[in-house]
Predict the 3D structure of the following.
Amino acid sequence: MAVKVLILEDNPVARGFLCRVVRESFSDVSSITEAGDLEAVRRLLGHAAGQRASATADPFQLILVDLELPDGSGLELLTELANYPATRIVTTLYSDDEHLFPALQCGADGYLLKEDRFEVLVEELQKIVRGQPPLSPAIARRLLTHFRTGDGFPSATALSTGSGVASAAVAAAPAAPATPLDHERLTPRESEVLTYLSKGFTIKEIANLMGIKWFTVNDHIKSIYKKLNVSSRAEAAVLASKQGLV
């Protein structure tokens, strides 16, 4: 089964550009579905505004989401995709904190700037297969600056002073579990993926070793991170070692 991609972008020229980026990034793209507004995407995914989208028998594996749309904000869709098994990447022109941090808190797996060169966007999207978050260079620098200065992510209170849509979306986003969940809740497949992760294999290498697609490995990794209450490969490897999982 090849990769199905959904692109939410209201500008036809930008949509065409992103389609070319996706096709250049992955050799196994089966189809790219384009949508120009939230209503069209919700029809494709089969859910209404404010509801959570559920996976169908043949779900999308990669979804690119623009933030500024004619009928709302991409943050709304990110929140509605909380339980949907796809990699969700924001593609936007906005590099400021007021757009970046709410998008990440609403569940974005990456954040790319459409103004970046074609080659840069291709390189960043390909990081998905290597298990790295796709971030435009300017966004990566901004995140580093925040952590180095001790600012961290803006608090929910700080974000609430921004746009009403952003505040509502962040408030509706599911909170991370307060404590790690028992490692015994990992499925056998997840334990196998975690073992490979701890040994330094990339997502593509794990997929080849297990005989499954890279996006399936990516789904397992998301589940592992959630169950172990970690946010990186390094944290997962350390916790797995401490608990005797590897």
